Amino acid sequence: xxxxxxxxxxxxxxxxxxxxxxxxxxxxxxxxxxxxxxxxxxxxxxxxxxxxxxxxxxxxxxxxxxxxxxxxxxxxxxxxxxxxxxxxxxxxxxxxxxxxxxxxxxxxxxxxxxxxxxxxxxxxxxxxxxxxxxxxxxxxxxxxxxxxxxxxxxxxxxxxxxxxxxxxxxxxxxxxxxxxxxxxxxxxxxxxxxxxxxxxxxxx
Amino acid sequence: xxxxxxxxxxxxxxxxxxxxxxxxxxxxxxxxxxxxxxxxxxxxxxxxxxxxxxxxxxxxxxxxxxxxxxxxxxxxxxxxxxxxxxxxxxxxxxxxxxxxxxxxxxxxxxxxxxxxxxxxxxxxxxxxxxxxxxxxxxxxxxxxxxxxxxxxxxxxxxxxxxxxxxxxxxxxxxxxxxxxxxxxxxxxxxxxxxxxxxxxxxxx
DNA sequence: GAGGTTTTCGCCTTAAAGGCGAAAACATGG
DNA sequence: CCATGTTTTCGCCTTTAAGGCGAAAACCTC
Lengths: 204, 204
Known about the structure:
- The structure is a homodimer.
- Chain A is α+β, with helices and mostly antiparallel strands.
- Chain A is built from 4 helices and 4 strands; from the N terminus they run αββαααββ.
- Chain A has helices at residues 21-32, 94-111, 125-136, 142-151, and strands spanning 40-47, 60-66, 155-161, 173-177.
- In chain A, the strands form 2 sheets. A two-stranded antiparallel ribbon of chain A has the order 1-2.
- The termini of chain A are far apart.
- Chain A binds chain B through residues 15, 17-22, 43, 45-46, 48-50, 56-57, 59, 61, 106-107, 109-111, 132, 136, 138-141, 143-145, 148, 186-187, 189-192, 194, 197-200, and chain B through 15, 17-22, 43, 45-46, 48-50, 56-57, 59, 61, 106-107, 109-111, 132, 136, 138-141, 144-145, 148, 186-187, 189-192, 194, 197-200.
């Protein structure tokens, strides 16, 4: 009868007539779950299949939101974080929404600087590596992560170092994301940067 | 009084309760303008600012649709193609929608195989170069385009060649997009292909 | 057949990513 | 306090992809 009762669903709600959708989703989050410190929010996709929920059709605009790993927002008792590799049964089409969000995040981690939204203001390379590994689903090399981000000019060393773990080891340097990387920069063009072009030779 | 009258606007219309949005936009296009042979359609973004149109708020889901360069669909007399570099004044927020679509296309041309949707079933490298140049807004090198697409395994030579232009010159070989590239393949991961990973050394 | 045109190919340079091991910088146990 | 284990960081090298440039190929017209 109510096949979707007692299943987990994503936070959300109805759009008010005086707000746009992004404002709305932020309000919903702030009301229902205490997730206010979103470091990044972007539209994911619109889900509009006529039968996606029982009853009259509901069009949903899904968003991807990222919270830095260092803040653990207080959430109500009926709410929970779920690891994406072990999702419970979800209501409606929410599972496919989550999977799309995951894929989007993975893709953008590679070709944008969206990683800044996952990291605390200051972090060690190993910590960042952990975040990237978790998000991407495979182990990332710290060495390479370090170099790739540096070469892209996204990483800035703060002077400081973190305390070594209880097992000893060299204390890790603390880094920050460069200021100009604090907004998501979309793809680095692949097929021809804006530089001078072509015009190869004689064109009279 | 009616600041948006007599301005150009994008095709579109209301969503019916028994169709999803993509179905809807395809229907609208087929009805209003005869653009049926869309080689690729994807969601662009939702536009929902409360004041984006006068009167009660209208939420619009914008799509990017691509038509191969060889078909020139019949369009009604009140409808026109406009070059994106010389847009007329548009109604509402339609200009920003168009610009977003343009940017999306440009980005995806670089890191996906979306180009297949712009090209006719068979084409010469120069023709393809023309399409890429027009879409990207800068001159692309034919040599490099050729190699990049080949190395990605997207280009397949048909045996045939096109007729040389009236000015002579070596007849150009005709190519096709490889079959497996006929669906948009999203990013080639940059930061770590799925291959073996890390595990660098001793982990006991 | 000479000269002009367009396409294609081959070789080289540049740039970014990834691998691997050594060195650096810490902890702890004898 | 020195040897040993641990973790991070650095340097050098390899691999892969993109981009440049000129020569060769293949066609036209006069």
